[in-house]
Specification:
The structure holds 2 protein chains of 2 kinds.
Chain A: E1 15-18, H1 24-30, E2 36-40, H2 50-61, E3 64-67, H3 81-94, E4 99-102, E5 105-108, E6 111-117, H4 123-140, E7 145-147, E8 154-155, H5 162-173, E9 176-180, H6 181-191, H7 195-201, E10 207-213, E11 216-217, E12 222-223, H8 232-245, E13 249-253, H9 261-281, H10 285-291, H11 304-308
Parallel strand pairs in A: 1-2, 1-13, 2-3, 3-4, 4-7, 7-9, 9-10, 10-13
Antiparallel strand pairs in A: 5-6, 11-12
Helix pairs in contact in A: 1-2, 4-5, 7-8, 8-9
Chain B: H1 6-21, E1 30-31, H2 38-60, H3 62-68, H4 70-83, H5 98-104, H6 112-128, H7 138-142, E2 153-156, E3 161-167, H8 169-177, E4 187-199, E5 202-208, H9 210-220, H10 225-232, H11 238-255, E6 258-262
Antiparallel strand pairs in B: 2-6, 3-4, 4-5
Helix pairs in contact in B: 2-4, 3-4, 3-6, 5-6, 9-10, 10-11
The chains are: A alpha/beta, B alpha+beta.
Chain lengths: ~300, ~270
């Protein structure tokens, strides 16, 4: 076990965006004021063509970080060595500052479900995941980040809350955390806990990066869809996260219903403003509320068909 | 001996069985709330599993989708998800068996144009992100002494894919892609040879005469220039065969689909 100080984290990268194919040309042409880009690992584990062409050019101009969905760290089958080799090769070729994946499992028995499926929060899961993260970090020769996922079910087997699970894994595996503020909010609504308790419980020494994203609110539950702007409640929670964790590398994820780049740059500006105010003055609810007056409270009432289409 | 992670393993198998075949064993491990019962929670995952995979098919096979219509394509997706669960770490490869599925499943095999279109769209996808490679140039070929030509072998760029089509699939694809007036599905009298390739970042396809297709297939198999000239005599006079094959090579050079020759140093 290691006690990390801030010096043991990766350097702070500022305010970034997820790189999406819809914005490739725009990013190269306009060179927007984005501090760094997060790239979806699996989109670039290919041999050539357009995605790699743009990635290489953008990585020459901006710091990049890799974010994956297929490490399947919670699976009970052996780790996919071919996948890890490709990961390592890509990381080296684009000089990625770090790489992250999710604290979940995505498939088993040779099948990939391509979904971020939650683990039961048990000592058995912790032991299992810790040794797998250690294997990955040994193979890659660097610390990785693990991200908390949105979830819709809890298991009767769980022995602790999610934040304890996350903390213990990060501590024992000596890895860093990618804290997804939206996912905390989504899971808080879905499992009826206070998201502030989650934030307060997380060990700040392990937090390397934040994610923010939009979701779809169906009233009784929320689905993490990444197809909408970040909503007001998540911005409020972000302000609280800045108060708790201080200066933290930040990015916005948008995976569907991709808007023009300018729209995401506006969201990024808001994140910068919130971070600056909170770091200067501390968290004051009223100040944040005024800043968020232009952000709509989001609620989607789905038709039955839409519900099915989730 | 029971593995240290046995109960986690069991739970994962139960969840997978829920996603794939709606086996409800997992339900006893899931807690619900008054507002959102366990059934609804589990349905979120079961729906997401199918919809995400079908969405990946929609992205890779827009023309198959158009030929079938949205509702029928969705039904096809449901059948395919069950028949060919994803086994690759990347969802990009999920559709790799769709052409085979359409050719063999009894609901679709009577409409072979669907399988052909799926094959064509899959190869477009393969060419799109195939490895880059050097391009063979005319200057290199001009340095080769005439006596060394018979033994010469050619390698194609990794993005080159051959396909024979019994229907007017590329024309249908183009009309769909460019949102032009729908055109009729037409069965060809004989299968038409095509090839697909990528140059820089753009993907192309074109048809070939039967002797050009034969020559390309032979070259892809590693046959040398002399053997290919001999083979082309099936369609042209012997004295014209070398010129004919040289003409193919010239076209392929200008299209950028040849990458290297073997032996490399024979000038």
């Amino acid at each position: 076990m290691t006690n990390l100080s801030n010096q043991n984290k990766y350097p702070y990268l500022g305010f970034g965006l997820g790189l999406r194919k819809e914005h490739y040309q725009d990013v190269l042409d306009s060179q927007p004021a984005v501090d760094w880009f997060e790239v979806l690992t699996e989109n670039y584990l290919i041999d050539g063509g357009k995605p790699l062409y743009f990635l290489n050019r953008i990585a020459e101009r901006y710091p990049v970080v890799m974010h994956g969905v297929s490490m399947n760290i919670g699976n009970t089958e052996p780790l996919d060595k071919d996948y890890l080799s490709r990961l390592k090769k890509l990381k080296n070729s684009i000089n990625a500052h770090w790489l992250s994946d999710h604290l979940c499992w995505t498939g088993t028995n040779g099948t990939n479900a391509h979904d971020l499926l939650p683990l039961p929060y048990t000592q058995e899961s912790i032991n299992h995941v810790v040794q797998r993260i250690e294997q990955v970090q040994d193979f890659l020769g660097c610390r990785m980040l693990i991200e908390n996922v949105s979830s819709y079910i809890s298991y009767v087997q769980s022995e602790m809350p999610e934040w304890e699970f996350l903390n213990e894994i990060a501590q024992r595996a000596d890895c860093l955390l990618l804290l997804d503020i939206n996912n905390i909010y989504v899971s808080a609504v879905n499992h009826e806990f206070d998201p502030l308790n989650y934030l307060q419980a997380i060990n700040p020494q392990r937090v390397q990066q934040f994610h923010l994203a939009g979701h779809s609110d169906y009233g009784d539950y929320i689905i993490d869809t990444h197809d909408e702007p970040v909503c007001r409640a998540v911005w409020e929670l972000y302000a609280q996260a800045v108060a708790r964790f201080g200066e933290t590398t930040f990015m916005i994820e948008r995976d569907a219903n991709i808007p023009p780049l300018a729209e995401l740059l506006d969201e990024l500006s808001l994140a910068r403003s919130i971070a600056a105010i909170v770091q200067q003055q501390g968290y004051h609810k009223d100040t944040i509320q005024v800043m968020l007056d232009s952000i709509p409270v989001q609620k989607v009432i789905p038709t039955e068909q839409e519900k099915m289409a989730i | 001996m029971i593995a240290e992670n046995q109960s986690l393993k069991d739970l994962q198998m139960q969840m997978l069985a829920w996603l794939q075949v709606h086996d409800k064993t997992i339900k006893s491990s899931v807690t619900g709330t008054e507002k959102v019962p366990a059934d609804i929670r589990l349905d979120i995952y079961a729906n997401a599993y199918r919809y995400r995979l079908i969405e990946a098919l929609e992205e890779t096979f827009p023309a198959v989708n158009t030929l079938l219509g949205d509702e029928a394509f969705f039904k096809l997706g449901l059948g395919y998800v069950d028949a060919h669960p994803s086994q690759h770490f990347s969802i990009r490869y999920f559709g790799q068996h769709l052409s085979y599925f359409l050719a063999s499943d009894k609901s679709y095999r009577e409409q072979p144009v669907l399988s052909e279109m799926a094959h064509f769209e899959w190869l477009l996808r393969e060419a799109f992100d195939a490895a880059g490679d050097q391009r063979l140039t005319l200057e290199i070929l001009q340095q080769i002494a005439p006596e060394n030509w018979p033994a010469l072998q050619f390698s194609f760029h990794p993005s080159v894919y051959r396909i024979d089509l019994s229907y007017n699939v590329p024309q249908l694809w183009q009309a769909i892609e460019h949102q032009q007036e729908p055109i009729d599905i037409v069965a060809q009298e004989y299968p038409q040879a095509w090839f697909i390739w990528r140059r820089e970042l753009k993907t192309y396809y074109r048809s070939m005469d039967v002797d050009e297709a034969w020559a390309m297939d032979a070259m892809l198999k590693g046959e040398n220039f002399a053997l290919i000239c001999a083979g082309v005599c099936e369609w042209v006079d012997e004295q014209n065969a070398a010129m004919r094959v040289a003409g193919f090579i010239q076209n392929w050079l200008s299209e950028g689909i040849l990458s290297s020759i073997k032996p490399r140093k024979i000038s």
